């Protein structure tokens, strides 16, 4: 991103506690971290090229004025290392990838002096600052020969007494190294320098200062002799200067910072005089910064003076460096930039300068932390600035700043950028979260799917009621606006351990059991889709749906329940509309019995009990005999006229062994015969069968007899009678108590009678299946017989329905007659167990 | 008992170890490095202090006394060598008191004289009496180094007997008669016998110098004569001769003084102070040639590579420079810096007609200033106030420029002036108020003394004007003189306490002050412009300028003569004659004295022939 610092770690040099030092020789960087070792790092190859071992800890590295020699103050004195020599040594063993280890012998020791605090090299003079108990000692050493290992001889020395410190507060600072820099006045260096330095080598501690400022600060004398001036920032806060070439070595105090001086440098280079810095900047440890400039506004009667601007920076300042326009300083927790130039390159903004002269610009954070030491910055072609730094942990870092003019604006740019990033991050986070949720969701879905499919496969093993997710229904008749309508209240019960979350749809597919031939085998199925959300384990959902308006539906009706999961709902993609998972649940069967509208028991109804003579022989068999009491050929009249219905009565009966009923807990309570019958009817009518239950309860106690009068779905009156019958003598021969219950269905509509008959048979079959599961397989015989009877009954039912439809469609009577006769034959021949 | 002796042995061993190590370090390291010396001295000091703490940790025992006192001696030597006199003195006193506890004498009094006398009396017969004597030597050294000559005076008798005891019978002071076998060889850092000899000489020298500064020259002389007969290092003997010379000079016997100085130089060729003092005597005798010669010698001696401190036997810890720290002696031994001598030499040469030689010296001086060679010839010791300081660099430039102009090298002169002007022009004040105080002018501590800068720039312009006059480019000359005048009028004079400004004529112009220089400059520049105007026949302007010039600086000879000339040309012959007469009457010598070279009247401009003027006057009078 534009406008942001990039930090590149080049090398790790171990943790350093003491102040580090960094010196940059073009592509070679030397650095020390307070240990005995000095590291050489090549910035082009980006690798550690050498490790120089010294006899004592090294805290400072100083380059010579011409960048040819590296001075290393150590315990016993100052070592001088020629750069060319060192580099050749590095190159000779370049082949190996690991850095060269060089032990520095004592012949490189050029000055024997202990307690060297700081030093600086100017021309052939080496100025060493050391400390005695009472004073600072500036010693000038000089070499005559140009060989790198030639010893330096002392020329003279000057001492500066310590400032008496009453408080111990400043004592801790004494350990801080004084800062030494050299300032030149003129573009052309003194003649003794020009011979040796062919190219303009910029060093960290040598500055060219604008001549007028130089004269104002250091006097005419220094300017006349073109003396280099050593500026020394002491740890007691004094900023002293020492003109090197003036007779009598006079050390004077330029300024007092009242806190240890950390950095002294010169900056602000104008285009008009590219070689000279316009201002001198001094930074104290606690953040005081002093900018010394030439007074710009020369008012009437005044002369050129210097303006000293003091400012406050965030402390504690650890290190600093300057480039042509800016001061960079690190507090350890952040790296800052302070723009020193006024920003005016010409005279057009002279007026503005006068106004803003008194104050410093505000510093800008570069968001780089832990920088302990900095080398001089390198300005790139595009205006970007590269800084080399050493971090607290001893990492050599390259810090690249964006093009300089932008830096001020950068902060403003950064804020929205940070906002953007924040937004993006939160968006990503939510999308990840939602994806996770979807995955969790899908996982649930899959779990549910597996559960249901597994159940399907093992359907035989698991009874309907024990399925983890199943539907059951309650039927209700509603009377609304003189119209009777049948409502199916479907209850979805989730007893699985999974939650049914959003996206699930309960699909109820309602279709008649028997499809008519006339419609070409098509089923008249109606599908109800009921989306729901969050069905927790153990919860249920109730759905009411109209099953049929009276007389509109043919029964029995199958209700296929299935759960559908739509991925579209989950992913919100339109392309996925079609993709969904369909999991079939159980099937509900709504038969004639279910839809019976039981009349309230009245006295009149109670008396009418039709007698029925059994025609069956076998004891163990339930005999179904459907008698055509009246003329069988009267069918058409029955439909045509309601009045005539009274005359025509159809009946069908089913015999059930009492034992069977007892075994299967149908008859729960009493031993009274009558109550047996009532219980059977109750069971048939109001217990749950095929997952469907009648809506209203029948109060058993109100029924004195086991006769139920009801209205079938098509409006026909129907009578259900349950009674105990005695089977013939054959029974007695075989077993002791062949008690049998008979269920008789009587009605004027053959359709209704058949439907009910079928329904009763179906229920008994289910009961038998259940019983076989629990009891021995001996009753398999019953079951077989019952089943075949059921099949036949079904078949007959279909035929009846068919015929009814045919009739409705006004077909000729003859084939119907024929069919009916066939039916009846079949029915006659039907015998049940 | 066994335990004690073994402890004693260990301590002796430890002590000797330190002494040996120190001596070894001295042999190895170059003694020229003061830093290194100081370091090892500090190391030594701390070692001995620690050892002493151990020894004094147990109650004083007679068997231990000798060792203890020796360690005290060593420790004190270290402290004294580091100029920690009070610490050393305290240590001496405490340790001695501790030893005295063994003799059961009453606690000695606080007065050091009484104290030492008591001590000497009570230990007379003891085995460790010699050790006490050593400590007394140190006390002497401390008194001497801290310039307590009165104390030494008071204790003179005892010190003399001490000197005789130590230097008398026994051959080597280091091996004092020891009875115990263990204490046979306790090494000491400094040989007490050498020390006492050195102390004797140094005391006499210091005493002599003190007497001399108090004006008791003859007493001083006898004292120094005694000193010169003693055996002592060569430098010290040279000092005695030199000081004797100083005494004689004070007693107005310059020739005898010169003899003494010669003796000093013969003893020690490096005795520059003798050379300097003889130069001063030549100056006093107005023997200019000899003076220049002496300056020459002095300069070349000073420019010799510095020799390491004279090698005293086994790098004596307590050096004469440490012991001879008195102010009066320092002022007698002080010598100006080499650059200052060179400047003096150049100035003398120019002023006394050896122009080319003088110019060369000036150029040498400037060259040295630009090189870094000069740092070597700066005396490291602080220069006392009475030794002339080198003038400021711009002044040296201007003097050199003036010298160049005198030797008729106007082009070179102009280069130097241009240099000064270009450097100073940014720093010039627009206006300056010069407060005239009755006493000395306060010398501002400002790096850029604005007033001085203004004067320098003005002078540079003046010299440029002189150069153009020399080249007879009158127009340019007028321009530069005008520049100078414009600069000078920026200065307003103000008497302290008075609000109003004053005219220059009101002020009493003292020689050498800023005001004097300012007035002189005004006079010279106005005169120069006036003369230039005369050459271009702008007589009215010339008349005004010359009159103003004389107002500013009445002793201007050239201005007076040329004013007469202008008046003559204007036909005011009587006035002209009066002017000339007045101009001739001015004492040329006295007016030039004390003025820098560049403020001397130019000798290179158009000149008026005095004989011809005399002739004109004579023509005038008879009629």
From TrEMBL, chain A:
GO terms for cellular component: Fanconi anaemia nuclear complex; nucleoplasm. One of its GO terms (biological process) is interstrand cross-link repair. InterPro entries: Faap100. It comes from the Eukaryota. This is Fanconi anemia core complex-associated protein 100. It comes from Betta splendens (Siamese fighting fish). The gene is faap100.
UniProtKB/TrEMBL annotation, chain B:
Signal peptide: none annotated. SMART domains: TPR (SM00028). InterPro entries: FANCG (IPR039684), TPR-like_helical_dom_sf (IPR011990), TPR_rpt (IPR019734). It comes from the Eukaryota. One of its GO terms (biological process) is interstrand cross-link repair. GO terms for cellular component: Fanconi anaemia nuclear complex. This is Fanconi anemia group G protein isoform X1. It comes from Betta splendens. The gene is fancg.
């Amino acid at each position: 991103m534009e406008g942001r610092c990039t930090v590149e770690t080049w090398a790790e040099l171990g943790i350093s506690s003491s102040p580090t030092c960094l010196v940059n020789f073009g592509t070679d960087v030397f650095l020390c971290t307070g240990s005995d070792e000095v590291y050489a790092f090549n910035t082009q190859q980006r690798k550690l090229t050498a490790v120089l071992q010294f006899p004592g800890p090294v805290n400072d590295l100083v380059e010579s004025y011409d960048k040819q020699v590296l001075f290393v103050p150590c315990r016993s004195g100052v070592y001088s290392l020629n750069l060319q020599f060192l580099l050749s040594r590095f190159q000779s063993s370049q082949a190996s990838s690991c850095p060269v280890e060089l032990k520095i012998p004592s012949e490189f020791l050029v000055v024997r002096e202990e307690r060297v605090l700081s030093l600086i090299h100017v021309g052939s003079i080496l100025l060493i600052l050391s400390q005695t108990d009472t004073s600072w000692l500036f010693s000038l050493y000089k070499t005559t020969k140009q060989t790198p290992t030639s010893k330096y001889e002392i020329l003279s020395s000057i001492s500066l007494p310590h400032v008496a410190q009453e408080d111990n507060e400043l004592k801790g600072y004494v350990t801080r190294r004084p800062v030494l820099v050299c300032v030149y006045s003129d573009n052309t260096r003194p003649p003794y320098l020009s011979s040796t330095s062919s190219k303009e080598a910029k060093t960290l501690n040598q500055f060219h200062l604008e001549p007028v400022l130089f004269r104002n600060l250091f006097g005419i004398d220094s300017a006349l002799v073109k003396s280099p001036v050593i500026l020394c920032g002491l740890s007691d806060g004094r900023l002293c200067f020492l003109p090197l070439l003036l007779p009598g070595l006079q050390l004077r105090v330029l300024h007092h910072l009242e806190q240890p001086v950390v950095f002294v440098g010169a900056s602000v280079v104008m285009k008009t005089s590219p070689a000279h810095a316009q201002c001198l900047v001094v930074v104290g440890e606690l953040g005081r910064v002093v900018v010394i400039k030439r007074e710009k506004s020369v008012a009437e009667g005044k002369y050129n003076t210097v303006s000293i601007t003091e400012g406050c920076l965030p402390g504690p300042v650890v290190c600093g460096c300057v480039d042509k326009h800016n001061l960079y300083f690190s507090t350890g927790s952040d790296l800052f930039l302070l723009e020193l130039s006024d920003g005016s390159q010409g005279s057009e903004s002279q007026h503005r300068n006068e106004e803003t002269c008194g104050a410093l610009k505000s510093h800008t954070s570069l968001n780089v932390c832990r920088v302990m030491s900095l080398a001089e910055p390198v300005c790139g072609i595009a205006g970007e600035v590269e800084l080399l730094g050493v971090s607290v942990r001893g990492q050599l870092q390259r810090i690249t700043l964006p093009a300089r003019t932008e830096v001020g604006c950068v902060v403003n740019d950064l804020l929205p950028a940070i906002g953007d990033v924040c937004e993006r991050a939160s968006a990503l986070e939510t999308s990840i979260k939602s994806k996770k949720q979807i995955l969790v969701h899908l996982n649930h879905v899959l779990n549910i799917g597996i559960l249901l499919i597994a159940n399907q496969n093992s359907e035989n093993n698991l009874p309907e009621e024990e399925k983890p997710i199943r539907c059951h229904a309650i039927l209700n008749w509603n009377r609304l606006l003189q119209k009777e309508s049948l409502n199916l209240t479907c209850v979805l019960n989730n007893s699985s351990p999974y939650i049914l979350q959003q996206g699930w749809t309960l699909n109820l597919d309602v279709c008649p059991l028997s499809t008519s031939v006339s419609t070409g085998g098509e089923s008249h199925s109606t599908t109800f889709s009921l989306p729901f959300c969050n069905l927790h384990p153990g919860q249920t959902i109730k759905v009411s749906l109209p099953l049929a308006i009276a007389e509109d539906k043919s029964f029995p009706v199958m209700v296929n329940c299935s759960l559908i999961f739509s991925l579209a709902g989950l992913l919100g993609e339109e392309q996925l509309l079609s993709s969904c998972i369909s999991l079939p649940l159980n099937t509900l069967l709504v038969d004639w019995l279910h839809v019976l509208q039981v009349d309230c028991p009245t006295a009149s109804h109670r008396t009418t009990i039709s007698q029925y003579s059994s025609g069956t022989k076998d004891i163990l068999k339930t005999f179904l005999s459907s008698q055509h009491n009246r003329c069988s050929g009267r069918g058409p009249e029955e439909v045509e006229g309601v009045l005539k219905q009274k005359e025509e009565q159809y009946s069908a009966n089913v015999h059930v062994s009492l034992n069977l009923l007892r075994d299967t807990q149908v008859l729960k309570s009493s031993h009274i015969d009558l109550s047996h019958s009532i219980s059977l009817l109750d069971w048939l009518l109001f217990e749950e069968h095929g997952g469907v239950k009648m809506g209203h309860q029948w109060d058993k106690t109100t029924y004195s007899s086991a006769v139920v009068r009801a209205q079938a779905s098509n409006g026909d009156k129907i009578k259900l009678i349950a009674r105990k019958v005695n089977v013939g003598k054959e029974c007695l021969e075989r077993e002791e108590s062949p008690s049998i219950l008979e269920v008789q269905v009587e009605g004027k509509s053959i359709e209704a009678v058949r439907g009910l008959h079928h329904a009763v048979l179906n229920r008994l079959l289910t009961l038998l299946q259940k019983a076989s599961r629990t009891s021995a397989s001996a009753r398999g015989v019953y079951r077989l017989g019952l089943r075949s009877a059921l099949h036949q009954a079904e078949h007959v039912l279909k035929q009846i329905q068919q015929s009814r439809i045919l009739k409705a469609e006004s077909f000729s009577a003859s084939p119907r007659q024929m069919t009916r006769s066939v039916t009846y034959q079949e029915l006659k021949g039907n015998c049940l167990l | 008992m066994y335990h004690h002796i073994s402890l004693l042995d260990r301590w002796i061993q430890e002590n000797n170890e330190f002494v040996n190590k120190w001596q070894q370090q001295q042999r190895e390291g170059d003694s020229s490095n003061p830093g290194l010396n100081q370091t090892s001295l500090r190391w030594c000091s701390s070692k001995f202090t620690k050892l002493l703490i151990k020894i004094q940790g147990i109650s004083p025992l007679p068997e231990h006394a000798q060792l203890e006192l020796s360690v005290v001696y060593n420790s004190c030597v270290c402290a004294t060598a580091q100029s920690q006199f009070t610490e050393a003195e305290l240590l001496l006193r405490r340790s001695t008191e501790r030893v005295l506890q063994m003799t059961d004498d009453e606690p000695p009094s606080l007065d050091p004289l009484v104290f030492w006398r008591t001590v000497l009396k009570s230990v007379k017969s003891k085995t460790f009496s010699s050790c006490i004597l050593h400590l007394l030597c140190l006390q002497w050294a401390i008194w001497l180094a801290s310039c307590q000559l009165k104390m030494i005076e008071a204790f003179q008798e005892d010190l003399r007997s001490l000197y005789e005891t130590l230097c008398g019978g026994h051959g080597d002071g280091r091996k004092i008669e020891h009875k115990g076998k263990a204490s046979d060889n306790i090494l000491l850092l400094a040989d007490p016998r050498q020390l006492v000899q050195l102390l004797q000489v140094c005391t006499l020298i210091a005493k002599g110098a003190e007497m001399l500064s108090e004006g008791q020259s003859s007493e001083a002389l006898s004292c120094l004569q005694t000193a010169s007969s003693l055996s002592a290092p060569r430098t010290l003997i040279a000092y005695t001769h030199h000081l004797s010379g100083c005494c004689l000079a004070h007693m107005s016997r310059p020739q005898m003084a010169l003899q003494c100085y010669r003796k000093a130089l013969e003893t020690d060729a490096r005795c520059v102070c003798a050379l300097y003092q003889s130069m001063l005597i030549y100056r006093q005798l107005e023997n200019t040639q000899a003076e220049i010669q002496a300056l020459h010698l002095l300069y070349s001696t000073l420019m010799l590579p510095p020799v390491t401190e004279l090698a005293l036997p086994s790098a004596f810890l307590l050096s004469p420079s440490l012991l001879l720290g008195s102010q009066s002696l320092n002022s007698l031994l002080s010598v100006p810096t080499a650059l200052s001598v060179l400047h003096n030499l150049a100035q003398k040469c120019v002023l006394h007609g050896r122009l080319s030689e003088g110019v060369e010296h000036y150029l040498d001086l400037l060259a040295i200033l630009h090189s870094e060679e000069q740092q070597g010839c700066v005396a490291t010791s602080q220069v006392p106030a009475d030794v002339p300081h080198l003038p400021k660099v711009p002044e040296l430039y201007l003097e050199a420029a003036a010298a160049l102009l005198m030797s008729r090298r106007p082009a070179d002169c102009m280069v130097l002036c241009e240099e000064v002007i270009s450097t100073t022009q940014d720093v010039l004040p627009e206006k300056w108020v010069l407060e005239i105080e009755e006493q000395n002018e306060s010398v501002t501590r400002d790096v850029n003394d604005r007033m001085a800068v203004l004067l320098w720039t003005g002078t540079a312009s003046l010299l440029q004007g002189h150069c153009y006059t020399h080249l007879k480019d009158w127009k340019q000359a007028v321009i530069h003189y005008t520049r100078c005048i414009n600069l000078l009028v920026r200065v307003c004079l103000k008497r302290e306490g008075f609000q109003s400004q004053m005219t220059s004529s009101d002020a009493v112009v003292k020689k050498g002050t800023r005001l004097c220089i300012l007035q002189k400059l005004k006079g010279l520049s106005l005169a120069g412009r006036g003369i230039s105007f005369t050459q271009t026949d702008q007589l009215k302007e010339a008349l005004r300028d010359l009159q103003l010039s004389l107002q500013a600086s009445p002793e201007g000879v050239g201005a007076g003569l040329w004013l007469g000339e202008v008046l003559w040309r204007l036909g005011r012959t009587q006035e002209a004659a009066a002017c000339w007469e007045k101009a001739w009457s001015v004492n040329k010598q006295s007016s030039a004295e004390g003025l820098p070279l560049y403020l001397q009247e130019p000798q290179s401009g158009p000149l008026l022939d005095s004989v011809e003027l005399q002739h004109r006057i004579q023509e005038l009078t008879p009629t």
